[in-house]
Amino acid sequence: MHWTDEAAEQLEKILHDPLADAVRGQAEVVSVSAPSGRGRYQEATVELELSAPGLPGSRITTTGVFAVKAWPTVGFRAPARVPPSDPASAEVDWSALAG
Question: What CA–CA distances, in Å, run from 46 to 32, 35, 67?
Fold first, then answer.
């Protein structure tokens, strides 16, 4: 883990951020809305199955803005930070979509 990640985690704890107790896991796309219109970037509703060591699996629905060229697909897996106290606040690293 990079020192900036460690510093961010400490700051989250100090500020009582929901991600302060997050554990590293994965998010798998279960369903995703289709892009519509001609915009390069559009909002999508994404249903995710979250998994992390020591936590029961949970399913959440979230929204995000994605480049149409890098739209999430069903089955796509991304690293995520999942807070046991509030899985709906999970933070997904979508950077692999740009790959």
Answer: 4, 12, 14
Among 29, 21, 7, CA closest to 73: 29
Look at residue 3 in the predicted model and tell me its pLDDT.
Answer: 76
CB 33 within 8 A of CB 77: no
C-alpha span between 56 and 61 (Å, rounded): 17
Low-confidence ranges of the chain (pLDDT < 50): none
Element housing 89 (H / E): none
| Cα–Cα distance measured from residue 45 to residue 66, given in angstroms and rounded to the nearest whole number | 10
- Note the pLDDT of residue 20: 72
Q: Is there a contact between 89 and 52 (Cβ–Cβ < 8 Å)?
A: no
